[in-house]
Design goal:
This protein has nine helices and ten strands. By secondary structure, the chain is α/β, with parallel strands linked by helices. It has a domain at about 1-85 and about 155-235: Rossmann fold (3-Layer(aba) Sandwich). Strand 1 and strand 2 (about 15-25) form a beta hairpin.
Length: about 250
């Protein structure tokens, strides 16, 4: 469902992503791990069409994101780590705006919106201005907008920012259930290694722009000389990094 071929991004003399080649099947929960500055967000921007690769190609559902961006983006739901929302709109107005972008019919939009705002517990604030939302509410509104057009691929960059433990559990379980029941493909960048170990079908670890590990949790763990958890293996694979932060690169 997601495929990259030699995906590369160079900024001046810095190679942010180098020759990234991987394939993520439909219905897979994929977690993308790496220390700050490893290339995770740059990769996500190339996958979503927000940034052109220096070379290489990225495919969503077999569609080249650069050659046919409109058709590819119809398949994608995207939640960035710091979503841009229109503060002077209400939550309901923002969702109507998003529905218009995807050309969702009004009856379908209204039915789908009511279902999602209930699911993400936004009913009480949906008619308030977004500027009055907490960060957690903004994040939940972003997830609501993400699922409005029933995407086949959801790309999420550090989704837990601003969410309390209850909502982290809900989002985690909701995404996992979608991969099982509807064969949704999830591409998630995260620093929360415990959650990645718990929910991922496949894990990719990127370091200094290069993919240094790709496989199931058990396959990744097997790369270590001694038994341990995912955190131990991650630190071993990225051991020349001075600091492993719990925040993604900017």
């Amino acid at each position: 469902m997601i495929r990259t071929e030699g995906l590369t991004k160079i900024f001046g003399e810095k190679v942010a992503v180098k020759n990234l080649t991987m394939e993520i099947p439909r219905g897979t929960f994929f977690c993308f791990l790496g220390p700050n500055g490893a290339g995770k967000t740059t990769t996500i921007k190339m996958l979503t069409g927000l940034m052109r690769p220096t070379k290489g190609r990225a495919f969503i559902g077999g569609i080249d994101i650069q050659e046919n961006p409109v058709e590819a983006k119809k398949l994608i739901g995207f939640v960035p780590d710091h979503p841009f929302l229109y503060d002077k709109l209400t939550g309901r107005e923002f969702l109507k705006f998003v529905a218009g972008l995807y050309r969702i019919s009004e009856p379908e939009y209204k039915e789908r919106m009511e279902e999602l705002i209930h699911l993400f517990e936004l009913t009480q604030v949906i008619d308030e201005l977004i500027e009055d939302y907490s960060h957690g509410m903004r994040q939940k509104l972003s997830f609501t907008a993400c699922f409005l057009h029933k995407p086949e691929v959801v790309i999420v960059d550090e989704p837990w920012v601003g969410l309390d433990p209850k909502n982290i559990r809900f989002v985690k379980n909701y995404l996992k259930e979608k991969t099982r029941s509807e064969e949704l493909t999830v591409f998630m960048s995260t620093h929360t290694l415990g959650i990645a170990e718990e929910i991922a079908d496949i894990i990719g670890i990127i370091h200094n722009g290069s993919l240094c590990a790709f496989g199931s949790v058990e396959q990744i763990k097997a790369l270590s000389d001694k038994p341990g958890n995912l955190e131990d293996v991650f630190l071993e694979l990225t051991k020349d990094t001075d600091e492993v932060s719990m925040r993604d690169e900017k």
